[in-house]
């Protein structure tokens, strides 16, 4: 049975596509295993059904007309979408496998995400994960530089799908060595006599009120002077771990460092949301769904451990 939409015979579209790419009836015929005359008849019939010429004929071959260029773009887009659909169907039936590129910030990727890749690899050994850790500029998902991103602000592009992964909370932490030497603050005002580590003010902070430790408990007085400013949350963590002082750190870092001690736990700093983001065209990818579900499960396990 012949497939038709309007006046167009769908069976002729692969022939047109082959001719447009080859620029020759003869070359297209070899690829399609058809005679040159059979290919020519199919193209002539297609042009007749559309009532426009699709090719200029000359001695050196065939060139698409303006209408032919437009029609080729449409046919190519249909072919690309069909390939993606077939890949999604195949992937949905099979064990997830293949490359998976994930991008996020250096600190979050180093401190939280990489620590969970061992478990993910054991569950899905046929998925080859690549982590792309950059702070700026963000990796572009639409040029396929990465398949998935973990971003720290709601995305406004309607062509992406986003899922809230976690809410990141900042609290104050110090090392055991520091507290043995300097004592443990009992209230916010006690921070006046402690060494404080804050985010550098030369670059935008990753979250509003990032350096609230300088003002909390000051009752409108001038901010405290820090012992160190550094424009990296991971570097702040390393400074705290070394015993330099107290800093506001996210739980995803402190959870990986049981040697750190939370101080003044009733003081809650700012929060920010982390989103699991991927292009809409990957909606049916099994690799995307398994990494999404895995990370959500990890977040839930972290929450239960923290509450235990």
In words, what does this structure look like?
Helix 1 (13-22) packs across helix 3 (36-50) and helix 2 (25-32) packs across helix 3 (36-50). 25% of the residues are buried. The chain has three domains: 4-93, Arc Repressor Mutant, subunit A (Orthogonal Bundle), CATH 1.10.10.10; 98-158 and 277-307, D-Maltodextrin-Binding Protein, domain 2 (3-Layer(aba) Sandwich), CATH 3.40.190; 168-272, 3-Layer(aba) Sandwich (D-Maltodextrin-Binding Protein, domain 2). The protein is elongated, with a radius of gyration of 29 Å. The protein has 308 residues and is of the alpha/beta class. It is 38% helix and 23% strand. It has ten helices and 13 strands. The strands form three sheets. Strands 5, 6, 7, 8, 9, 10, 11, 12 and 13 form a nine-stranded mixed sheet that branches. The protein has a two-stranded antiparallel ribbon with strand order 1-2. It has a two-stranded antiparallel sheet with strand order 3-4. The mean pLDDT is 88.
Highlighted features:
308 residues; alpha/beta; Arc Repressor Mutant, subunit A; D-Maltodextrin-Binding Protein, domain 2; 3 domains; nine-stranded mixed beta sheet; two-stranded antiparallel sheet; elongated
Task: List the topology elements.
Elements: E1 4-5, E2 8-9, H1 13-22, H2 25-32, H3 36-50, E3 55-58, E4 61-64, H4 66-93, E5 98-104, H5 106-113, H6 117-123, E6 127-133, E7 148-151, E8 160-175, H7 176-182, E9 196-199, E10 228-230, H8 233-241, E11 246-250, H9 251-254, E12 260-263, E13 271-279, H10 286-307
Parallel strand pairs: 5-6, 5-7, 9-10, 9-11
Antiparallel strand pairs: 1-2, 3-4, 7-13, 8-11, 8-12, 8-13
């Amino acid at each position: 049975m012949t497939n038709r939409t309007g006046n167009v015979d769908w069976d002729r579209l692969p022939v047109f596509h082959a001719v447009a790419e080859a620029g020759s009836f003869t070359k297209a015929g070899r690829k399609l295993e058809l005679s040159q005359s059979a290919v020519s008849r199919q193209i002539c019939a297609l042009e007749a059904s559309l009532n426009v010429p699709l090719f200029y004929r000359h001695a050196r071959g065939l060139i698409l007309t303006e209408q032919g260029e437009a029609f080729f773009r449409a046919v190519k887009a249909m072919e690309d979408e069909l390939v993606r659909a077939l890949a999604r169907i195949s992937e949905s039936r099979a064990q997830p496998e293949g490359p998976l590129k994930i991008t996020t910030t250096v600190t979050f990727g180093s401190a939280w995400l990489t620590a969970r890749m061992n478990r993910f690899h054991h569950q899905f050994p046929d998925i080859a994960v690549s982590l792309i850790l950059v702070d700026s500029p963000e990796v572009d998902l639409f040029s396929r530089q990465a398949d998935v991103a973990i971003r720290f602000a709601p995305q406004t592009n309607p062509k992406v799908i986003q899922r809230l992964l976690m809410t990141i909370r900042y609290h104050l932490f110090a090392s055991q060595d520091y507290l043995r030497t300097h004592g443990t603050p009992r209230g916010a005002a006690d921070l006046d006599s402690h060494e404080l580590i804050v985010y550098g003010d030369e670059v935008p902070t990753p979250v509003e009120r990032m350096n609230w430790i300088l003002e909390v408990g000051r009752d409108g007085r001038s901010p405290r002077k820090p012992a160190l400013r550094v424009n990296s949350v991971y570097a702040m963590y390393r400074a705290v771990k070394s015993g330099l002082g107290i800093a506001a750190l996210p739980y995803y870092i402190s959870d990986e460092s049981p040697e750190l001690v939370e101080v003044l736990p009733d003081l809650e700093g700012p929060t920010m949301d982390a989103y699991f983001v991927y292009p809409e065209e990957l909606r049916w990818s099994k690799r995307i769904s398994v990494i999404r579900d895995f990370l959500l499960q990890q977040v839930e396990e972290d929450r239960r451990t923290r509450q235990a």
